[in-house]
TrEMBL record:
The keyword Oxidoreductase applies. InterPro entries: HIF_prolyl_hydroxylases, Oxoglu/Fe-dep_dioxygenase_dom, Pro_4_hyd_alph, Pro_4_hyd_alph_FE2OG_OXY. Coiled coil: none annotated. Residues 96-200 form the Fe2OG dioxygenase domain. Pfam families: 2OG-FeII_Oxy_3. Keywords: Dioxygenase, Iron, Metal-binding, Oxidoreductase, Vitamin C. This is SM-20-related protein.
């Protein structure tokens, strides 16, 4: 069954962001988290960089480790995730006419205490990233574990509002890549997610 995507689309159109709980079921979350951990154990992860041309590793600004998902993966948990994203993209295209053509996703693991300082996801030299999508893979995450995603939402009067999102397992956050600055706060435990971008041609 398709999750109900209408509230998240309404959120993106009205406020520039939307949040949907249970995009993944608890068993899908634990299955994908296990795939992530197995791949990391196998040495497949790398420190994430900043920029797309001269990529630099600056862990004080961005401390996560990532692995790009293969769009042709035959690992069932990964296949199911990407197929679910494909359905979401189809729904967005039918309702918002954003002309999304492509997507790219990576696993991310933030070791305890690491952050991603305030930034915008769209590269200056490449504006194809339309929507940022993050799906959290954390079981039993408590507010006191930290690791919130902070969204800096512009108000009509020119000020801004900080909206914080707890990285609870199965929760999907989607926002306008070119507009919304955001930041990842440090956590007291490892913080797992799949993060990606829905892109135009
Ligand atoms: O994990 C998150 O909540 C946000 C990650 C992020 O901002 C990014 O990877 O660009
Ligand atoms: Fe980001």
């Amino acid at each position: 069954m398709n999750p109900d995507y209408e509230p998240i689309i309404d959120g993106i159109l009205a406020d520039g962001y939307g949040i949907l709980d249970n995009f993944l079921s608890p068993s899908e979350v634990s299955g994908l988290a296990l795939c992530l951990r197995n791949r990391r154990e196998a040495g497949q992860f790398r420190s994430a960089g900043i920029g797309n041309q001269q990529v630099s590793i600056q862990t004080a600004i961005r401390g996560d480790e990532i692995l790009w998902l293969d769009e042709d993966t035959v690992i069932s948990e990964e296949r199911a995730f990407l197929d679910r994203i494909g359905q979401f993209v189809q729904y967005v295209n039918q309702t918002c006419y954003l002309g999304l053509r492509d997507y790219e996703f990576h696993y991310a693991l933030y070791p305890t205490g690491t952050v991603y300082k305030r930034h915008l996801d769209r590269f200056k030299s490449d504006s194809r990233r339309k929507l940022s999508v993050i799906c959290y893979l954390n079981t039993n995450w408590q507010e006191s574990d930290g690791g919130q995603l902070a969204l800096y939402v512009p108000d009509a009067d020119g000020s801004e509002q900080q909206v914080t999102v707890v990285p609870a397992g199965g929760r999907l956050v989607c926002f306008d890549s070119g507009q919304l600055e955001h930041e990842v706060f440090p956590a007291t435990r490892e913080r797992l997610s799949v993060t990606g971008w829905l892109k135009t041609a």
